Amino acid sequence: MKKLSLFSALLLVTLSVFSQETIKNKDKYTAHNKGKFFVSWGGNREVYSKSDVTFSGSNYNFTIQNMVAHDKPKGWHIDYINPGRMTIPQTNFRMGYFVNDHYSIAIGVDHMKYVMTQNQTANITGTIGSGLPFSGNYSKSPTVMSESFLMYEHTDGLNYVNTEISRHDDISEWFNIKNTDKIQISLTEGMGIGMLYPKTNTTLLGKQRHDDFHVSGYGTSIKAGLNVTFFKHFYIQTELKGGYINMPDIKTTFSNTDSASQEFFFFQKIIAFGGIFKI
User: Fold this and answer.
1) How much is the pTM?
2) Which residues, at least 6 apart from 245, have a Cβ–Cβ distance to it below 8 Å?
3) Helix (H/G/I), strand (E/B), else coil: 30
């Protein structure tokens, strides 16, 4: 009987401690996400697949095959937080809401930069009519992309305006973190879709330089990331993000008859700083 009484007492104490710990965990701000808002700002680096780019207009229609392009990084710079110059670097803005503890919906802008690698040699197929520089018929003809032939970039920028659905899972216990209100580590995965609103900077066949915003197409993307939240409200998030972009209507000159089209894949590395809160 004494042993049974001792066992019962220990069991009651254990259940009491477990119950208190469960209540504590439930009381933590970070135990639930539903109803929280978040906002973040950060920077990115990106790479692009090769792309066939078709230029068409009055008296010309040709395709540059396997165009090579790169991004235009700013590096660690004050412009990321300078209100008057925040669009100059490659940046990512996101604002969202948790519909439940694991899923969020967000809107944002991935401000990427796409620059055709100047002076590369690429094959051209198509026709450039008489009276224009570099006129002739081309059939996979190797041609140097000199500045007098073509300058082509989306540098203010390759703006992917998108909405995302993401899943979030707390993995703090993997790191033996007990108090997630001090530090919490989460995995996030998501997918997005949106439109491309680039400001394309182009000089084509000696025509007047063009540099203007224009809705040019659409994009889709998937991502995976790691979020570290400090003191319930502040976080750092790193992401790997890949996607597909299709732009069938890119403005290249001031003439409405001139345009370009291209499609390609992109890959981003992102680091962002943000806040999470309830209103």
Assistant:
1) 0.84
2) 158, 160, 196, 217, 218, 219, 263, 264, 265, 266
3) helix
